[in-house]
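can u do me a favor
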């Protein structure tokens, strides 16, 4: 299905629900990707700094665990600009390990920019970028099933799934892997609720612009007539569930027409569009999730304050 047709279908499906939703995977057009890069540099957004610390501090240990004496594919799901992954790429290259790099991202712009930057920074690295959603990229794994794989799923992207979705996703990934393959997954750990909330509702408004850009993308690509000024970003964290949720709130009674679906959608004043979840975990929760999906924890790597973890899962018989 063409990407624009799928986009229109998903938007129509979400806005036709009683509780309106929009899929967070559509955040990342060119503008959205640039805004997210700005978010990662915000003082409130601890996640990137923490995971960068984890990877920088433990890169040699990770490389040693990846090195099993045979050629492997390093598959980076949701690669983006691969800022953090480049720490590993440099270490793996320095150790002269035999591997290639397969970054996967829904943003074609991001993959073009990444391929160019890697060509300049690590010219001898073999790169095969894949543009598509996570599940589509698993077809690539299927075609290369017999070769060893180390899959990266960094940045706490697993937290964007509801629990049933995370189980389906990880079970699907596991079905394409063989004994000896590995999965390195970033997870944001539970912590002070105020710290979490500020990370998703920064004082400078970059996160708000990132959320609102989803409406601008609908206007641009699907012929929508959203008045973006009549919506605002709203974020809330539930410490009982460990879930950060983001919304777009309609500031007035209004109708929005989208040419791509040839439909008009009504919004009541203060009605919410749910745009994103971000789950926070404990390590026992992650261990149980891995076991449900056929993975065993091989090693847990933390930052110095144990705010974030990169969990290396092994695939056994």
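np, heres the sequence
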């Amino acid at each position: 299905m063409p990407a624009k047709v799928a986009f229109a279908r998903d938007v129509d499906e979400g806005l036709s629900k009683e509780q309106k939703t929009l899929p967070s995977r559509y955040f990342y057009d060119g503008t959205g990707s640039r805004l997210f890069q700005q978010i990662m540099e915000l003082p409130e957004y601890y996640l990137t700094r923490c995971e960068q610390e984890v990877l920088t501090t433990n890169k040699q240990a990770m490389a040693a665990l990846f090195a099993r004496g045979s050629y492997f594919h390093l598959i980076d799901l949701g690669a983006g600009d691969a800022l953090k992954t480049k720490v590993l790429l440099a270490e793996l290259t320095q150790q002269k390990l035999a591997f290639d790099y397969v970054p996967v991202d829904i943003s074609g712009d991001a993959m073009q920019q990444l391929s160019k930057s890697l060509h300049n920074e690590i010219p001898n690295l073999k790169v095969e970028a894949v543009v598509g959603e996570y599940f589509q990229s698993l077809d690539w794994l299927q075609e290369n099933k017999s070769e060893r794989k180390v899959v990266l799923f960094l940045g706490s992207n697993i937290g964007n799934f509801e629990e049933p979705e995370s189980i389906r996703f990880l079970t699907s990934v596991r079905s394409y892997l063989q004994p000896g393959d590995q999965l390195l997954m970033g997870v944001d750990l539970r912590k002070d609720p105020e710290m979490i909330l500020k990370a998703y509702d920064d004082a400078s408004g970059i996160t708000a612009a990132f959320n609102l850009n989803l409406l601008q993308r609908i206007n641009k690509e699907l012929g929508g007539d959203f008045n973006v000024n009549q919506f605002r970003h709203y974020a809330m964290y539930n410490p009982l569930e460990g879930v950060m949720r983001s919304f777009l709130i309609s500031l007035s009674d209004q109708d929005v027409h989208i040419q791509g679906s040839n439909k008009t959608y009504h919004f009541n004043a203060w009605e919410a569009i749910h745009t994103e979840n971000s789950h926070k975990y404990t390590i026992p929760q992650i261990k149980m999730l891995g076991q449900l999906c056929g993975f065993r924890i091989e090693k847990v790597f933390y930052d110095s304050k144990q705010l974030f973890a990169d969990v290396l899962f092994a695939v056994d018989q």
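The chain has a mean pLDDT of 93. hope that helps!!
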